[in-house]
Structure prediction request, 220 residues.
Amino acid sequence: MRRFRQCPPPGVLALACVLAGAGLHGVAIRGDAATVSIDVVRRDEAIVIEASALIAADTSTAWRVLTDYGRYVEFIPDLRVSKVVARHGSQVVVRQSGDAALWRLRVPIEVTYEITETAPARLRSRAVAGSLRMLESDYTLTPRPPGVRLDYVGRAATGFGLPGPLEEIVVERNVARQFRALVDAIERRAVGEREDAAAATPAPIERQSPPDGQVQRPGR
Prediction:
């Protein structure tokens, strides 16, 4: 297995990992905080993607970001639309559209996902319509004090029509940027929630000592 290292810009569900999901070989990315590890291998005609990160956040915060599909466009690079079109209990249908970056070119991508949520630990999805031939994804959140571990496993067939090595390079760059962005969004949310909690905590009241020579008597 070949290995690469890269440092993408600081910071998706399935779209993020599939847009990049063909040729990542052991990438370890260190940003401002969490280190992200990504491996992509080709098995037969499918691409198997594995990504993980240890995040400075609790599980509930990570889950809120992971399932806040409508806000993905705020932090996932090259994603223009992310919309919940149906929800029935733990079953969600999400439509996403954006671009896969091919150096200076952009390839439009549109995918509809059926998602099964198992709060607050697991999210599974599969592409049911759109630009990708096949995509099955699995996100898992595992507490790792003082934070949480995020693991992603995906199996995809992109249908880009690119030669294998070129497709692998394109996918490597996209998945690194977008998975990194998801991790960063979780950590930013965690920092914001901690700051809000600290601001809402009243300051302790200091008791003043009586002047010299005076005795403080208990009230009746």
